[in-house]
Amino acid sequence: MSRFARAIAWMLPFGLLVLSIVSVPLAILDEQGLPRYRALKGELAEVERVNDRMRREVEDLQREVAALRSDPEAIERIARDELGMVREDEILFQFPY
């Protein structure tokens, strides 16, 4: 092997090592690197919290729908609380605030 070939065989891996030592930290610390990763990670956590809250709300609404379909007392409660309905034999008293 010639002297030139040995120099190239040694310089090529060394050059790649130096290039990677310089470019990897620059890529990580770049605006699109680690800071963006951390921001996206925080955003993902927030979205997961919102999804969990919405999932619980959907489950509560599904339970309410099931109760309204099968429970006459639930229907009466909604009619009284939200629609202000009363039975024919009841007397409604309204007091000023």
If you had to describe this structure to a student in words, what would you say it looks like?
It is a single chain. With 97 residues, this protein is mainly alpha-helical. Helices cover 78% and strands 0% of the residues. It has helices spanning 3-29, 34-70, 72-83. The longest helix has 37 residues, at 34-70.
Quick structural summary:
The protein is mostly helical and 97 residues long.
**Main β-sheet: number of strands, strand sense, barrel status?**
none
> Can you tell me the overall shape?
rod-shaped
H/E topology pattern? HHH
What is the percent of helical residues? over 70%
Structural class, please?
mainly alpha
Low-pLDDT sequence parts: none
What is the radius of gyration?
35 Å
Separate helix tally: 3
- Number of domains as seen in the coordinates: 2
The total of beta strands comes to 0
User: Termini separation (Å)?
Assistant: 102 Å
Mean pLDDT metric: 85
Q: Give the amount of beta strand, in percent.
A: under 5%
Topology:
Layout: H1 3-29, H2 34-70, H3 72-83
Helix pairs in contact: 2-3
Keywords:
3 helices; 78% helix; 0% strand; 2 domains; mainly alpha; 97 residues
